[in-house]
């Protein structure tokens, strides 16, 4: 059994770094942690995509910090709640997923989370699935549980108010999502739930239900979100997320494309750089004593290193310097073999997976994001989505600043 560490400095950093709010208050949770009591905590992850992303990594990292101090951590996969779809911040009803889809999406979640969490050893994190208890609920159980909440509680949420004003539908199952998440806390009998500050409502529902059913105090710890300069969340819905299964070059390159304003928060939330160094980075940026580009390269290296190790992170950095800063082509270019002698550029982008859809391929072309190099000629920007490409020896397609693909027949 792991020994609980009660070092005051470590506990103070645990409750400060990346933390926005603690309910009912920080003092009570700090007192419990310093007492040497082992607490049970969790964060849930709904499998709405086939990979976790950097936003998920923020809470996973916080779970790992509690784990290192000897506390019992649960990594909860929401294979039940994921089928409902969390309505938080959504202006339209989310598409419901099947059990097969959520299980397929989550099959690599534990491996991805292991970049932070230890699932072996003397104090392993547990992996649980909330279908284990939610599938067993009867309609009678649901009525009993729902009697602990009011319609007013649910309808007051901003996204529901926005939908009412815009005459958009609100479905009953969306009301039940916070109840399902709340029941997770009760069933697992946790002392603490952590999550992004956008999850506060759902987590507080769990706190209320715990009081009603078990007369137990459940702490809630909300984390800051990774946002851009305008305060918009960086995530999969917003299209600027870094997925944890991204290749080293892609991960490094995407982070380098983030706005400069994300640098201090990203160091605090997404890296294991010592907290005192993070504070210095923030101070230096405010006083213009640091070059944002250099700091962003440091940031991209640190994040890439967590998932791919130092060697591959260094290689990704060297690749970025060569292909983006020095505008050289990489030494090794991946290839794509097509069955056609000639092919429309939009079809080629989709077939080669340089674009996920024809609409996205056309958007990339309209924005000047696609270039083609034939033989010894220089790269030329593709301006016409109706362009037909003759597949000759030496055709190279470039997407953006760092993606290259050699096309052969």
Structure, briefly:
The protein is built from 18 helices and 13 strands. It is of the alpha/beta class. The protein folds into 3 domains: 8-223, Rossmann fold, CATH 3.40.50.620; 248-325, Tyrosyl-Transfer RNA Synthetase; 335-408, RNA-binding S4 domain (Structural Genomics Hypothetical 15.5 Kd Protein In mrcA-pckA Intergenic Region, Chain A).
Count of discrete alpha- or pi-helical segments spanning 4 or more residues: 18
Give the fraction of residues assigned to helices. Answer: 40-55%
Instruction: Name the CATH architecture of the largest domain.
Output: 3-Layer(aba) Sandwich
Q: Given the helix and strand composition, which structural class is it?
A: alpha/beta
Approximate shape: globular
How many angstroms does the end-to-end distance come to?
Answer: 60 Å
In CATH terms, the superfamily of the largest domain is: HUPs
The CATH class label of the largest domain is: Alpha Beta
Please supply descriptive tags for the structure shown above.
ATP binding, 3 domains, alpha/beta, ATP-binding, Structural Genomics Hypothetical 15.5 Kd Protein In mrcA-pckA Intergenic Region, Chain A, RNA-binding, Tyrosyl-Transfer RNA Synthetase, Tyr-tRNA-ligase, Rossmann fold, aminoacyl-trna synthetase
Notes on the structure:
With 409 residues, the chain is an alpha/beta fold. It folds into three domains: 8-223, 3-Layer(aba) Sandwich (Rossmann fold), CATH 3.40.50; 248-325, Tyrosyl-Transfer RNA Synthetase; 335-408, Roll (Structural Genomics Hypothetical 15.5 Kd Protein In mrcA-pckA Intergenic Region, Chain A). 45% of the residues lie in helices and 14% in strands. It contains 18 helices and 13 strands. The protein has helices spanning 8-14, 26-34, 54-68, 81-84, 99-105, 109-113, 131-134, 139-146, 151-155, 158-165, 172-188, 200-214, 248-256, 263-270, 275-286, 292-325, 345-351, 358-366, and strands at 19-23, 40-45, 72-77, 126-129, 192-196, 219-223, 335-337, 342-344, 370-374, 380-381, 388-390, 395-399, 403-408. The strands form three sheets. It has a six-stranded mixed β-sheet, sandwiched between helices. Strand 12 and strand 13 (403-408) form a beta hairpin. Helix 14 (263-270) crosses helix 16 (292-325). The protein is globular, with a radius of gyration of 24 Å. The N and C termini lie far apart (60 Å). The model has no long low-confidence stretch (mean pLDDT 89).
């Amino acid at each position: 059994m792991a020994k609980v560490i009660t070092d005051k400095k470590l506990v103070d950093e645990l409750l400060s770094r990346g933390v926005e709010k603690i309910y009912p208050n920080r003092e009570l949770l700090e007192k419990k942690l310093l007492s040497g009591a082992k607490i049970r905590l969790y964060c849930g992850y709904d499998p709405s995509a086939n990979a976790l992303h950097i936003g998920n990594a923020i809470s996973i990292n916080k779970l790992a910090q509690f784990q290192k101090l000897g506390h019992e951590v649960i990594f909860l996969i929401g294979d039940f709640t994921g089928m409902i779809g969390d309505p938080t911040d959504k202006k339209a009803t989310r598409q419901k997923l099947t059990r097969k889809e959520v299980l397929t999406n989550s099959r690599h979640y534990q491996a991805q989370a292991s970049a932070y969490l230890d699932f072996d050893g003397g104090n392993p994190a547990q992996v649980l699935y909330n279908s284990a208890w939610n599938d067993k609920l009867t309609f009678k159980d649901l009525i009993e549980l729902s009697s602990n909440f009011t319609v007013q509680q649910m309808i007051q949420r901003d996204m529901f108010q926005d939908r009412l004003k815009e005459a958009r539908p609100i479905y009953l199952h969306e009301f039940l999502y916070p109840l399902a998440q709340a029941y997770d806390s009760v069933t697992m009998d946790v002392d603490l739930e952590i999550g992004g500050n956008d999850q506060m409502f759902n987590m507080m529902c769990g706190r209320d239900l715990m009081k009603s059913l078990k007369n137990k105090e459940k702490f809630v710890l909300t984390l800051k979100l990774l946002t851009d300069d305008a305060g918009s969340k960086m995530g999969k819905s917003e299209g600027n997320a870094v997925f944890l299964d991204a290749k080293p070059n892609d991960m490094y390159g995407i982070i380098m494309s983030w706005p400069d304003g994300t640098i201090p928060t990203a160091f605090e939330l997404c890296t294991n750089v010592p907290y005192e160094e993070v504070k210095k980075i923030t101070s230096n940026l405010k006083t213009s004593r640091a070059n944002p580009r250099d700091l962003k390269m440091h940031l991209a290296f640190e994040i890439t290193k967590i998932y791919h190790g130092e060697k591959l992170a260094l290689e990704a950095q060297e690749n970025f310097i060569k292909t983006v800063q020095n505008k050289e082509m990489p030494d090794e270019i991946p290839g794509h073999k097509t069955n056609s002698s000639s092919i429309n550029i939009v079809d080629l982008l989709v077939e080669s997976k340089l674009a996920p859809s024809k609409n996205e391929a056309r958007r990339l072309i309209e924005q000047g994001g696609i270039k083609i190099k034939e033989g010894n000629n220089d790269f030329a920007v593709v301006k016409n989505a109706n362009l037909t490409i003759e597949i000759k020896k030496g055709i190279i397609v470039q997407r953006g600043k760092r993606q290259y693909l050699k096309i052969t027949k």
